[in-house]
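Morning. Coffee machine broken again, so started the prediction first thing and wrote up yesterday's gels while waiting. Chain of 112 residues, entered below exactly as on the submission form.
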Amino acid sequence: MIPPSKYYFRQQLRNRLYNAVVAQVEASGVSRTEISAAIFWDYDDVVRILSGPSEWTLDIVSDLLFAAGAELDPVIRGIDDTQAGGGFCGPSFSRVAPSAAGEGRGTNGEMS
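Came back before lunch.
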């Protein structure tokens, strides 16, 4: 068996992060319009960024999670642990209370 290359792992990480962040954004119930207002992006840019991970940066991940009221708590483990049948447990997310974050959405959805 030929071992996966570093490029395989790069793309795998992009896909996993994209899937996890988009799932969190969707679970939060925040609309594309609310995201664009919360992070001061054009609506079309939000739609484009949420369509795939090709242009993602850590700043984009942070902005999207901020708009969804969540933060990332990554889990890192050895490659052998993933290939041994354990699967990828992926990052976990926690809600950020507006008072704890200093900024964020109030209970009625408006920015504080």
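Residues 6-101 form a domain with the 434 Repressor (Amino-terminal Domain) fold (CATH 1.10.260). Going to sketch it on the whiteboard this afternoon.
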